């Protein structure tokens, strides 16, 4: 019955593709790519920033302060992504650096 539902939803070709990908992932693991390595490096760096800058040694103690620290880190990350990752010389787009909802390093 499950097979019939899967075939109805995806067709035989779709089901075969999902099965092939599932088997490949189980046998070979996830494909290592430079973008995946960079992404994991970013996640590790964010964890390091969290532990290094959002703690008692920087007087960030309360849950609200930690949440605001995460918010600030995300604002910086978003700005960096917009200006360095998403920007294209072939398709330039003006972007607001700060806004009423995004503050960087102080009040706007």
Task: Give an account of the 3D structure.
The structure is a single chain. With 108 residues, this protein is an all-alpha fold. 65% of the residues lie in helices and 0% in strands. It has three helices and no strands. The protein has helices at 2-28, 34-53, 63-85. The radius of gyration is 22 Å and the shape is elongated. The termini are far apart.
The total of helices stands at: 3
Mean pLDDT level: 83
Number of beta strands: 0
* Major beta sheet summary: none
- The residue ranges in which pLDDT falls below 50 over 5 or more consecutive positions are none
Order of helices and strands: HHH
Helix content: 55-70%
What is the SS-derived class?
Answer: mainly alpha
What percentage of the residues does DSSP assign to strands (E)?
under 5%
Q: How large, in whole angstroms, is the Cα Rg?
A: 22 Å
- In whole angstroms, the N-to-C terminal distance is 60 Å
Q: What would the principal axes of the Cα set say about the shape?
A: elongated
Topology:
Blueprint: H1 2-28, H2 34-53, H3 63-85
Describe this protein with a few key phrases.
108 residues, 65% helix
In short:
The protein is mostly helical. 65% of the residues lie in helices and 0% in strands.
């Amino acid at each position: 019955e499950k097979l019939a539902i899967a075939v109805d939803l995806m067709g035989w070709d779709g089901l075969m593709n999902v099965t092939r990908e599932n088997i490949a992932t189980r046998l070979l693991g996830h494909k290592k790519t430079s973008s995946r390595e960079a992404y994991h490096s970013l996640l590790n760096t964010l964890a390091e920033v969290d532990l290094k800058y959002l703690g008692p040694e920087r007087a960030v103690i309360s849950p609200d302060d930690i949440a605001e620290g995460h918010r600030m880190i995300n604002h910086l990350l978003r700005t960096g992504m917009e200006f360095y990752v998403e920007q294209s010389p072939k398709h330039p787009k003006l972007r607001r650096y700060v806004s009423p909802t995004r503050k960087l390093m102080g009040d706007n």
